Amino acid sequence: MISQREPLLWLQLIAIGAIPIELLLLFLVLAGADLGPIPAFERLLTWAVAVLAPTLVLWQRPADWGSLLLLSRPLKERSESQRQLSGLQQGLIPRLTLLIGSAALLAIFWWIDQSSILARDLSPLQGSSRLITLLTAIPLLALMLWQWHQLTQSLWLLSRSDQALAQAPSLSNDQLKLERLCLGLALLNMPELMPAAANNKSDFKMKEQ
Fold this sequence. Notes:
Strand order of the largest sheet: 1-2
Structural class: mainly alpha
Strand content: under 5%
Largest sheet: 2 strands, parallel
Number of helices: 9
Radius of gyration: 21 Å
Number of domains: 1
Helix content: 55-70%
Number of strands: 2
């Protein structure tokens, strides 16, 4: 399938291994201070800033599939099929998975904050104030939301057939800027992956020669 030739979609799958590591780091960060006087309110406020607000933004403007947060694929150099991949992001399933990830992060954050006292001696922020640990947790939660969003979008796009891609709208540069959240320096210009069939044919020809 054409979508499976795009290397950035495969690179987004790195989040499968990165998110568990970031959850462990969040556990250690929150262990650095005792719970505040109203921990439930503190958790809800932290989650609202770190997860809920970005979720609302990503619902309106989904993260561009070609963005790795710090680096991205240049908009002007995208092919027709790459622009159609952006059109496929308008589907309901990627947005529903964003909501699922947002709700899951609240439950996970709540549980981690309750049990983080078990790792107090291992925390890099041991002895810090509750405010410091919560402020440190905010970028970690926001990063995990972004990675979850990109991971689920990539799995969705990689599973789309060539027929679905052909029927998707091709977004212009102006539409991409207005309708997609593309973060990072536009320095990624990776060639498409060769399809397996083409590789097999080339190997066969080499053997014949």
